Amino acid sequence: MSLSDSDHELVTEHLGREPTQAETALFENLWSEHCAYRSSRPLLGAFETDGENVIVPPGDDAGVVAIPSSDGSEDTYIAMGIESHNHPSYVDPFDGAATGVGGIVRDILSMGAYPIALTDSLYFGPFEDEHPRYLFEGVVEGISHYGNSIGVPTVAGSVAFHDEYEGNPLVNVACVGVTDADRLVTAEAQQAGNKLVLVGRETGRDGMGGASFASEDLAEDAETEDRPAVQVGDPYSEKLLIECNEQLLDEDLVESARDLGAAGLGGASSELVAKGNLGAEIELSKVHQREPGMNGTEILLSESQERMVYEIEPENVDRVGEIAERYDLQASVIGETTDDGIYHCTFEGETVVEADAEFLGEGAPMNDLEYVQPDQPECDLPEFDLETAFEAVVGSPNTASKRWVYRQYDHEVQVRTATPPGDDAALLAIREAEQGLAISAGADPNWTSAAPYEGARAVGLENATNIAAKGATPLAAVDCLNGGNPEKPDVYGNFKAIVDGLADGCRDVDVPVIGGNVSLYNDSVEGPIPPTPTLTMIGTKDGYDAPSMTLSGEGTVVLVGGTDDEPALGGSELLARLGGSDRFPALPESSGELIETIAAVADFESTLATHDVSHGGLAVTLAEMVTHDAGADVTVESPLAAFDEQPGQVVVETTDPVAVRDAFDGIAPVRKLGEATADGTLSIEAGDASLAVDATEVSELRAVIEDEL
C-alpha cells in the first residue's frame, strides 16, 4: 500500500514541499483506514458514549468507567480496550494472535491501570475444513501462550465458524484493568519541556507497515508476502513492562503515556503530543535498537512489541531509567515535548519528519462512500424432525462446548475469577470496591449475515442478558466493528447497518460504549467476511456469588422473555445447519427494564440456576444446563420453538415460580416449561414430537471440537 495521489497532493500542499521518505511512510500509515477510520468515523457518532460513570470516553488508548465502592469511599476505575489482529492472524496465527494480546494489554497500561482479564472473540471458516482448523489451533495457542505468560487470565469470549471467514479470520481481543483517580493516566501530553522516554524492548524491523497492511484486502499470497508486517512478541518482556509500569505509577513519575502499536513510535509519539496541542523534538538514532543499520523510517514505523513511550518531567528521567534497568528493560530519552505543535524528527542530526502534529493525526479526509441497504430475508423453512434437528444443532461446532479453548487459558491467575469461562458471563472479584465484575464478549455472524441491523442490535441485548443472568447490572462496553472492503456498496451498507444496530442495542440497555476499534478490508479472494460487531461488556453486582448455569434438579423450570407469537428462525443455527431463511426474531420493546429485572431475579434466594437463550435456541440452552445429576422434563409449543434464538430470553430454575412471574409482571412473559429432575435426562415434548436424551449423549454431541482436535 502507498500514499494515494490525492493524499500525496494534500500532504504536499500542507507541507509546501515534497514529503520525505519518512514523512510519506508516516502519512501512509497514520492516514490508513486502520489508524484514521476514514470510512467508519462518519458513522461512529451513532454510539452513546457518555454516562454518569464514564471517566474517559472514546478517543484514548482505552475507555475508563467508575464503579462506586460499596462503602461509599473513593471510586475504583475500570479501564477497557479492544482491538483486532485479523490480517496478522491469517498470515501467522500464533504470533498474530499473541501480539494482539500484548498490544491490548499495553493499551490498558497506558491508562495507569493493572490488567486483570482478557476476552477473545474468534471467527473462522468452516470447522470441517483443514485450513480454518489450522488457523484456529494456532490462534488459541498464541493467545494462551501470551496471556498465561504475562499472568493475565482469559475469562470470557466466543468462537464462531462460518463459511465467509474462509479467507479472512477475525481475532478480536479485549482487556480489562483496574485503577483509581490517583493513578489514572491519559495519552494526552501535559506540558512543553517534558522528556519523551521510550521504555521496553529494542526496536527491530518486525511489523513494518502493519497499519497499512491491515488496511487492504488479503491477497492470495499474503501468508508469504506479508509475513514481515506481522510483529513478533515476547510475553516475558511484557510481564516485566507491566510490573515496571506499576512502579512508575507508584512513584507518580508518569505525566502521560502511549503504547507503541499501529505505526510504531511515529504513531504513538505524534498522537501523544497532538492530543495535548503540543509538538515534539525527537532524535531517532537515540532509540535503542536490536538490528544494525536501521534507517530513520524503519525506526519510526517499526511495530516491534513490548514498548511504551512516556512523558516524564526532566527531574524524574534518571529515576525512570533506574526502574527500567531494575526490570531488565531499556529506557532511552528520545526527545522532548515542545510548544510549537510541530512534530519534528531527526536521524543522526538530519531532519526526516517536520509536520504539524495535529495534521498528522487528524488531517486525513474522511471517505464519503456509497452504500446499499441490506435486503430482508424471506421465509423459506426446511422440513425437519425434532431428533435430527437436535443432533445437528447441539452437535454443531458453533454451539458445541468450547472447553478445548478455555482449558488452555489460565483463568485463575490473580485469584479473582469467581465464575470461570463456559458460563454466560465470567465474574471477577474486584476486592478494591467489594464488587463483582461480570464480563461477556462476542457476536453471532449468523445473526448479522441474516439481518445486519437487527442482528447487531441483538448482540447488544445478548451480552447484556449474559451479564444480567449472573445477577449483575450492565455498566459499559467496548466494540470491535469488523467489515469487508467498504468501497463495495453492499459491504458498506452492511457495515453501516451493524454500526446503527449495535449503537441502538447498547442504547436500549442503557450501556455507554466507551471505546472500540474498527477493522475494515477484511476481504479476500474468497469474498468479504460477514459484518461482525464484536462487543465486550461489563457489569457490576454486590459480592462475587452468582447462580449456576446448570440445573440442580430440585426446582421448576420457567422461560422468561419472548415477544414473538410465532417462532422466527432468521439467523438461527438450525437454518445454518439445515438450510433455509426466515425473518429475524423481534426484540423486546423495554430491554432496559427486562435486563434490570433478570439481574434482580438471578439473585433471588429461590433461584437455583439461570441460563440465557441464544445460539441454538432453547434446545441448546437446556442441553447445556443438564448434568449427570440433574435433568429436565419440559414442554414447548412446536419443534420450531425449540430452535428460535430470540435474544432477551432466560431459562430460570426456581423454587418459587410465582415470585418470578410477579417480578416480570408488565415487563416480560414468564412461561412454565416443566420441572427439573434428578435423573440427568432432558425430555422435550414439542407438539406431536418428543425427544429424550441423557447427559452422556448430550456431552458426546457437544464434544465435537475436542474430539476433532
User: Per DSSP, what share of the residues sits in E-state strands of 2 or more residues?
Assistant: 25-35%
Q: Which strand order does the major sheet show?
A: 8-10-7-11-9-12-13
Please summarize the sheet with the most strands: 7 strands, mixed
Fraction of residues in helix: 25-40%
Number of strands: 28
Q: Helix/strand-derived class?
A: alpha+beta
- Taken from the alpha-carbon principal axes, the silhouette is globular
Structure annotation, total helices: 24
Point out poorly predicted stretches.
none
| Distance, first to last CA | 37 Å
The radius of gyration computed from the alpha-carbon positions, rounded to a whole number of angstroms, is 25 Å
The whole-number mean of residue pLDDT values reads 94
Description:
The protein is of the alpha+beta class and 709 residues long. Helix 18 (489-508) links the parallel strand 17 and strand 18 (513-519). Helix 5 runs parallel beside helix 6 and helix 17 (452-468) runs parallel beside helix 20. The two termini are 37 Å apart.
